[in-house]
Amino acid sequence: MDIILFILEIVEFFVTYGPSNKMFSRLRSYYYRKRLLPGSGPFESLTGLSISGSGNIFIGKNVSINRFVTISSDHGGQIRIGNNCLIGPYVLIRSADHCFVDPLRPIRQQGHNGGPIVIEDDCWIAGHVTITRNVKIGRGCVIGANSVVTHDIPEYSIAAGVPARVIGTRNGK
Q1: What are phi and psi of 2, to 5 degrees?
Q2: How big is the CA angle at 34 (ends 125 and 50), to the nearest 5 degrees?
Q3: Which of these is catalytic: 75, 98, 128, 151?
Q4: Distance CA 161, CA 77 (A)
Q5: How is residue 147 annotated by DSSP?
Q6: Domain ranges of the chain
Q7: Which H or E run contains 60?
Q8: Which CATH number fits domain 2-169: 3.90.1150.10, 3.40.50.970, 2.60.40.10, 2.160.10.10?
Q9: Which pLDDT belongs to residue 173?
Q10: How far lies 167's CA from each of 13, 42, 79, 141, in Å?
Q11: DSSP percent split of the chain into helix, strand, coil, nearest 5
């Protein structure tokens, strides 16, 4: 049994960190489908994509995922990424946070709180963005680089900062 787990880990490493070309992008899309909700994808991705969770992730069609993106729906969270979205490099989308209300217990022993993340159609999430639980990013939004999204962003907004706040709207909307 240990050899089978070892082989599966090697396969996942090979798929995750394979070159950023069309063949490996298709391979990643096919490989990660088992962790996604039915109807997801296909999507394009570059090297370093990590998808983990309990099968509560949906990725729409024509989504482009850049290098070293992590999408995690562990601990009861759900993630939905709409169609035609762009996700920049080193983005973290994680639908659970650590609990830390009891100062007498180590944080690692206090569990997690899960919640939904929704990224609607036609959004651009720039590089190094973190998106936390209980967030809805409206259709057509742009999230600036290095932002931390902790609350809802209205449709066609441009948001940036830590925490992210609306700094403008897209022209024509």
Answers
A1: -60, -35
A2: 40
A3: 98
A4: 24
A5: -
A6: 2-169
A7: none
A8: 2.160.10.10
A9: 54
A10: 39, 32, 25, 11
A11: 20, 35, 50
Q: What pLDDT, in 10s, does the model give residues 17-68?
A: 988 888 888 888 888 888 899 888 889 999 999 998 877 999 999 999 999 9
Looking up tokens 């309990």, which residue turns up? 54
3-class secondary structure, 96: strand
CB 128 within 8 A of CB 140: no
Give the residue among 112, 119, 115 at the shortest CA–CA distance from 59: 119
Please identify which residue in the block is written with the tokens 């100062």. Answer: 103
Helix (H, G, I), strand (E, B) or coil at 12: helix
| CB contact at 8 A, 56 and 79 | yes
**Residues 55-114: tens digit of each pLDDT:** 799 999 999 999 999 999 988 889 999 999 999 999 999 999 998 999 999 999 998 999
Active site residue 98: yes
Q: What is the pTM of this model?
A: 0.90
Of 111, 51, 113, 119, the closest CA to residue 84 belongs to 119
